[in-house]
């Protein structure tokens, strides 16, 4: 198609670059641990205290002086009076007198003078006095203060993602907040006078609106937040009203539809077809997803995607997902690429980068194109787990060729 046009089209790489520059990171913010989950740290975390905080018992048992248990055997236990009971949470400072034992629970502070813990399993569990059946060596079953973290150590680094374990560590160090790169806030708008919401009756000539729920889900999957979703008919006033209502609360606006070459292209019409209003419309040398646009609305970045559902989601994958993830500081903004062997010969239009939906079988390392290349075949995308990326200059890829495919799982 339009071989002569291709020279005027923007390359996929160039459009990725421009979208990447348009979507900007939010300034760092200090948020509760709960809100920090999954985000990227903007600052290092330096331990304000040591972990363990104090010497404590690693076992339920008895705190003793190791030498007092030296002769103990199962046949000839050593008997010691139990002079204190130390559950977890006891805060007074205790001293162990020679020739005595303190009953102690896991995590409780080891009394001064004690050099070992005898596990309860090696005793009769006595309360007034205890029979110790096994001798203890000095230091046994004592967790020393600072052996996990010394105060002042950098324990988490800027750029690291906040995992459940990172949250646990921050809490253990007494932090109730972390400084992170906040999630991007995205407004999703579908356009088209033929669109009605699922769950309502369908009139002749109407179709169910599917892009907004799909793209909102894709936005959330990147770790970003959906400010709102909305649908406007092919009516500039309606479309503008949605922008006015929500755009100021968004870091990014994503629209679908209304950017092709026909009449009633509401997104193009709203911004002036020549890009006079800060949004430029371009053809990108790709299939699906050729008509694209981007710019700013009152300072907020906007990316305008084509309306066909497959084009919309593939364009989101190729342009928006990596840019959003980069803006949120994720160390892995791109989908992982997997080497796989193509099971059948596929063809691709000259001069366009083709993204084919595919099934990757990771047990055999085979990849099979899945469904036709046209951009309305949503059914196939819904069950695909990979994208085949066929370069612009390639018109045919033979069965048996090894390729790198995008792993969508
Ligand atoms: P457009 O880009 O507006 O010309 O739309 C291209 C095709 O995608 C048309 O067949 C539309 O009916 C369809 N389409 C556009 N937007 C949506 C949507 N939100 N949900 C489902 N189909 C859509
Ligand atoms: Mg339309």
From TrEMBL:
Q: Which reaction does it catalyse?
A: adenylyl-molybdopterin + molybdate = Mo-molybdopterin + AMP + H(+)
Query: Where do the TM regions start and end?
Result: none
Question: Keyword annotations for this protein?
Answer: Magnesium, Metal-binding, Molybdenum, Molybdenum cofactor biosynthesis, Transferase
Query: What top-tier enzyme class does this entry carry?
Result: transferase
Q: Which GO terms describe its molecular function?
A: metal ion binding; molybdopterin molybdotransferase activity
**Any idea what job this protein has?**
Catalyzes the insertion of molybdate into adenylated molybdopterin with the concomitant release of AMP.
Query: What protein am I looking at?
Result: Molybdopterin molybdenumtransferase
Q: Which cofactor does it need?
A: Mg(2+)
Q: Does the keyword Transcription apply?
A: no
Name the InterPro entries for this protein.
MoaB/Mog-like_dom_sf (IPR036425), MoaB/Mog_dom (IPR001453), MoeA-like (IPR038987), MoeA_C_domain_IV (IPR005111), MoeA_C_domain_IV_sf (IPR036688), MoeA_linker/N (IPR005110), MoeA_linker/N_sf (IPR036135)
Coiled-coil stretches: none
Q: Which residues form the MoaB/Mog domain?
A: 187-326
* Family recorded in the similarity comment: Belongs to the MoeA family.
NCBIfam families, per database record = Glp_gephyrin, molyb_syn
* Enzyme Commission code(s) on record: 2.10.1.1
According to its UniProt entry, the protein's GO biological process terms are: Mo-molybdopterin cofactor biosynthetic process
Q: What is the lineage of its organism?
A: Bacteria, Bacillati, Actinomycetota, Actinomycetes, Mycobacteriales
Per the UniProt entry, what species is this protein from, by scientific name?
Answer: Mycobacterium basiliense
Pathway where this protein functions: Cofactor biosynthesis; molybdopterin biosynthesis
Q: What are the GO cellular component annotations? A: cytosol
């Amino acid at each position: 198609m339009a071989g002569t046009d291709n020279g005027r089209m923007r390359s996929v790489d160039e459009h990725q670059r421009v979208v990447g520059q348009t979507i900007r990171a939010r300034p760092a913010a200090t948020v509760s641990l709960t809100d920090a989950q999954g985000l990227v740290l903007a600052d290092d975390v330096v331990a304000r205290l040591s972990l363990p905080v104090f010497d404590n018992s690693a076992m339920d048992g008895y705190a003793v002086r190791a030498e007092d248990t030296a002769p103990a055997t199962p046949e000839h236990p050593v008997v010691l009076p139990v002079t204190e009971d130390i559950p977890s949470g006891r805060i007074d400072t205790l001293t162990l007198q020679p020739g005595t034992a303190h009953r102690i629970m896991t995590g409780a502070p080891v009394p001064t003078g004690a050099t070992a813990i005898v596990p309860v399993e090696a005793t009769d569990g006595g309360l007034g006095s205890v029979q110790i059946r096994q001798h203890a060596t000095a230091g046994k079953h004592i967790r020393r203060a600072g052996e996990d973290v010394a105060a002042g150590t950098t324990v988490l680094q800027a750029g690291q993602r906040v995992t459940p374990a990172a949250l646990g560590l921050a809490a253990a160090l007494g932090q109730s907040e972390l400084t992170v790169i906040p999630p991007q806030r995205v407004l999703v708008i579908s356009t088209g006078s033929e669109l009605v919401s699922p769950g309502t009756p369908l009139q002749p000539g109407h179709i169910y609106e599917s892009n907004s729920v799909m793209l909102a889900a894709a936005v959330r999957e990147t770790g970003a937040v959906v400010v709102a979703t909305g649908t406007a008919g092919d009516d500039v006033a309606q479309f503008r009203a949605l922008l006015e209502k929500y755009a100021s609360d968004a870091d990014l606006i994503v629209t679908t539809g209304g950017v092709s070459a026909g009449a009633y292209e509401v997104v193009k019409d709203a911004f002036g077809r020549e890009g006079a209003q800060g949004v430029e419309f371009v053809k990108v040398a790709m299939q699906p997803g050729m008509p694209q646009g981007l710019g700013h609305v009152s300072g907020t970045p906007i990316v305008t995607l084509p309306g066909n559902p497959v084009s919309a989601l593939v364009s989101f994958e190729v342009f928006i997902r990596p840019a959003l993830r980069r803006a949120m500081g994720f160390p892995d903004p791109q989908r992982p690429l997997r080497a796989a062997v193509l099971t059948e010969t596929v063809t691709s239009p000259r001069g366009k980068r083709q993204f084919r939906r595919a099934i990757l079988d990771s047990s055999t390392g085979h990849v099979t194109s899945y469904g036709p290349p046209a951009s309305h075949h949503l059914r196939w995308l819904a069950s695909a787990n990979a994208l085949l990326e066929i370069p612009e200059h390639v018109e045919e890829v033979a069965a048996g060729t090894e390729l790198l495919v995008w792993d969508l799982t």
